[in-house]
Amino acid sequence: MFTKRQRIGRTIDDLQPGNKWEETIPVTDKEILLYLGMSGDANPAYIQHDYAAGTPYKRPQVPQLMLQGMVTSAVSNHLPGPGTVLKEMHIRYDAPLYHEDTLHLKLVLTDIRPQTEEVTIQAEGMSGSTRIFSAAVIAVPPYPWKPATEQAFSYDNF
After folding, report:
1. CATH number for the domain that contains residue 91
2. Is residue 80 part of a domain?
3. Do residues 97 and 125 make contact, with C-beta atoms less than 8 angstroms apart?
4. By its UniProt entry, which Pfam families does this protein fall under (predicted)?
5. Residue of 115, 119, 109 whose CA lies nearest to 141
6. Domain residue limits at 87
7. Rounded to the nearest 10 degrees, how much is the dihedral formed by the CA atoms of 128, 132, 136, 137?
8. pTM confidence score
9. What is the largest CA-CA distance in the chain?
10. Bond before 80 cis per omega within 30 degrees
11. If both were cysteines, with which of 34, 36, 99, 135 could 123 make a disulfide (CB 3.0 to 4.6 Å apart)?
12. pLDDT of residue 49
C-alpha cells in the first residue's frame, strides 16, 4: 500500500461546479464496533440499548464523528479523490442515524477558487426522507503527479 504509487483524483483544472458523487452506505454493527474500538469511544448513547431506551432517541445512534469520517473518506476517495487535503469542515447533525440504517451520502462541488487552489463541497447525508446531516467542506484538490526525474530540484548532494 505504501510502496505502490496510487492514482490521484481530479486536479483543480479537471473540476467544475456541479460535479457530483453519491452512494448508499449500509451502516452495520460491525463497522460501528470497529470505529468505537479504534477511537476508544464508549459513549453509552452509541452502544447500550438500555441506556438509549431512556433517551429521546430510544435506540443507540451511529457516532456523529463516524458519519463525519464517511464524508472525509468520500472527499478523499471520490470527489475530488486521492491526493485531496481537507482544510475545513462545518457540519450540522439534524437527526440521528441508528444502527443497521442505510445512509445515502451525496457530494456536490459548489465553488472553485483557483487563486487559493481550494474547492467547496456540499455534503448531505439522508436516511430515507430524513436529513441526517449537512456539511460544507473546503479542500485542496490533488496536484498533478510528476515523476521524481521531472521535479525542479537537484540531487547534487548525492
Report:
1. 3.10.129.10
2. yes
3. yes
4. MaoC_dehydratas
5. 119
6. 12-28+61-144
7. -90
8. 0.86
9. 69
10. yes
11. 135
12. 94
pLDDT of residue 144: 85
- Residue in the structure block whose three cell numbers are 483524483: 9
Enumerate the H helices of the chain as residue ranges: 29-39, 44-47, 49-53, 64-77
Taking the CA of residue 23 as centre, how many other CA atoms within 13 Å lie in the half-sphere pointing to its CB? 12
| Main-chain dihedrals φ then ψ at residue 104, nearest 5 degrees | -100, 110
**8 A C-beta contact, residue 9 and residue 83:** yes
Query: What integer pLDDT is reported at residue 55 of this predicted model?
Result: 96
Q: How far apart are CA 68 and CA 75, in angstroms?
A: 11
Hey, what's the cell of 156? 547534487
Tell me, what's the pLDDT at 153? 55
What does the alpha-carbon distance between residue 113 and residue 4 come to, in Å, rounded to a whole number? 31
Domain count within the chain:
1
Cα 150 versus chain centre, distance = 32
Mind listing the pLDDT tens digit for each residue in 4-39? 667 889 999 999 999 999 999 999 999 999 999 999
Half-sphere exposure of 20 (CA within 13 A, CB side): 6
pLDDT digits (tens, 9 = 90+) for 44-63: 999 999 999 999 999 999 99
Question: What is the grid cell recorded at 86?
Answer: 481537507
C-alpha–C-alpha distance, residues 134 and 146, integer Å: 36
**What is the Cα 106 distance to its own chain's centre?**
10
